[in-house]
Design a protein that fits this description.
This protein is of the alpha/beta class and 220 residues long. The chain has two domains: 125 residues, Response regulator (Rossmann fold, 3-Layer(aba) Sandwich), CATH 3.40.50; 64 residues, Arc Repressor Mutant, subunit A (Orthogonal Bundle). It is 57% helix and 11% strand. It is built from nine helices and five strands; from the N terminus they run E-H-E-H-E-H-E-H-E-H-H-H-H-H. The protein has a five-stranded parallel beta sheet with strand order 2-1-3-4-5, sandwiched between helices. Helix 5 packs across helix 9. It starts with 13 loop residues before the first strand and ends with a helix. Pfam families: GerE, Response_reg. Keywords: DNA-binding, Phosphoprotein, Transcription, Transcription regulation, Two-component regulatory system. GO terms for molecular function: DNA binding.
């Protein structure tokens, strides 16, 4: 079995392998190690879910049929947590409905056992590239959420006006403050959020609000 996940501080990508077939799990770990890819293997879904670190870029090679919790159970739990790691399902008894279900629920690939070693490496490399992209986007959104939390109540009101496409005069009228005060707040918002422009500010904030609305099932 491969080594356990490293510290999140290094942020080196990792491949999680969840398969109750110890031989398959170990074989894939050795294959990945041969090309310098770190991995962590688990025979039980519960062990993986306990060890999974969402702060480290990673992908998951996940067996469909396992005792206690199936691969689909694991996928559902990760979706519930809002995890974004790419999932490659593997199965020795796969069929079209099974693969469709996996992909519809967010998996990026479905591979039948026994799989070709080089093809699996190619799939994992693509998954890790996607994982790094998603991780960078997640980090950016987490940082923006922290910055949004630093805004004053009045700055948040002004920001909402900006997001709604209102000019300073309209925002000033809505909030019963001067245009100059609105412009001061706009400059402060731009500085606190680290936005290069109002257009970028609107785009980034809307992305965060849309994600939060989707998670809560409400409108932003």
């Amino acid at each position: 079995m491969s080594q356990q996940p490293q510290s999140a501080l290094s942020l080196a990508p990792i491949v999680y392998i969840v398969d109750d077939d110890n031989g398959m799990c170990t074989s894939l770990a050795w294959l990945l190690e041969s090309v310098g890819v770190k991995s962590a293997g688990f025979a039980k879904a519960s062990e993986f879910l306990s060890a999974f670190d969402p702060d480290v870029p990673a992908c998951l090679v996940l067996d469909v049929r396992m005792p206690e919790q199936s691969g689909f159970d694991v996928q559902a739990e990760l979706n519930r947590q809002g995890a974004t790691l790419p999932i490659i399902f593997v199965s020795g008894h796969g069929d079209i409905p099974m693969s469709v279900r996996a992909l519809q629920n967010g998996a990026i690939d479905f591979v039948e056992k026994p799989y070709n070693s080089q093809q699996m490496l190619d799939r994992v490399q693509r998954a890790l590239k996607l994982a790094s992209q998603r991780h960078a986007a997640d980090q950016k959104q987490r940082e923006l959420r922290k910055r949004l939390a630093s805004l004053t109540a009045r700055e948040k009101e002004v920001l909402r006006g900006v997001i709604d496409g209102k000019g300073s005069k309209r925002i000033a009228s809505d909030l019963s403050i001067s245009v100059k005060t609105v412009d001061v707040h706009r400059a402060s918002i731009k500085d606190k959020l680290g936005a290069a422009s109002i257009a970028m500010l609107v785009r980034d904030v809307m992305a965060v609000w849309d994600q939060e609305a989707a998670a809560s099932g409400t409108n932003a």
